[in-house]
């Protein structure tokens, strides 16, 4: 119960579980911004790599905001979005659940990024 948290973001109430990353059952979620190729295959590749080390989820249904909210509610500390720029610059956006800060990270460095924080 102590992890249950509400705050206001853009005029709406956001509910999330403020679990320590070490305790969170799902460590990260991977989202392609679009179900279309090549974003879906890039996201799936990253998911397959991360699931060997962490319990991660893959989600391509609904808007990106709804995907973030679903993960916030279960306490997932990091959400990783593969977007249209990812095809060109080979980077993804990693969003921190608590701060909502977003970092642009090279795809090859995502695992190290998560290992440093979990």
Secondary structural class: alpha/beta
Q: What is the N-to-C order of secondary-structure elements (H for helix, E for strand)? A: EEEHEHEHEEH
Instruction: Give the CATH architecture.
Output: 3-Layer(aba) Sandwich
Query: Major beta sheet, specifics?
Result: 5 strands, mixed
Ranges where pLDDT stays below 50 over 5 or more residues in a row are none
If helices are DSSP runs of H or I spanning 4 or more residues, what is the number of helices?
A: 4
Looking at CATH, the homologous superfamily is: Anticodon-binding domain
Placed side by side, the strands forming the largest sheet appear as 4-3-5-6-7
Oligomer: single chain
Instruction: Tell me the span between the first and last alpha carbons.
Output: 22 Å
Overall strand count: 7
Mean pLDDT: 95
Number of domains: 1
Would you write up a description of this structure?
The chain has 118 residues and is α/β, with parallel strands linked by helices. It has one domain: Anticodon-binding domain (Rossmann fold). The protein has four helices and seven strands, in the order βββαβαβαββα. Strands 4-3-5-6-7 form a five-stranded mixed β-sheet, with helices on both faces. It has a two-stranded antiparallel sheet with strand order 1-2. The radius of gyration is 14 Å and the shape is globular. 28% of the residues are buried.
């Amino acid at each position: 119960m102590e992890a249950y948290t509400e705050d206001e973001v853009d005029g709406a109430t956001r509910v999330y579980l403020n679990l320590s990353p070490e305790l969170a059952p799902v460590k990260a979620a991977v989202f392609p911004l679009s179900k279309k190729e090549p974003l879906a295959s890039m996201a799936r590749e990253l998911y397959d790599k991360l699931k060997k080390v962490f319990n991660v989820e893959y989600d391509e249904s609904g808007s990106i905001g709804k995907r973030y909210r679903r993960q916030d509610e279960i306490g997932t500390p990091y959400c990783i979005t593969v977007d249209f720029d990812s095809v060109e610059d080979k980077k993804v956006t990693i969003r921190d659940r608590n701060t909502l800060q977003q970092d642009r990270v090279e795809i090859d460095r995502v695992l190290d990024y998560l290992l440093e924080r979990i």
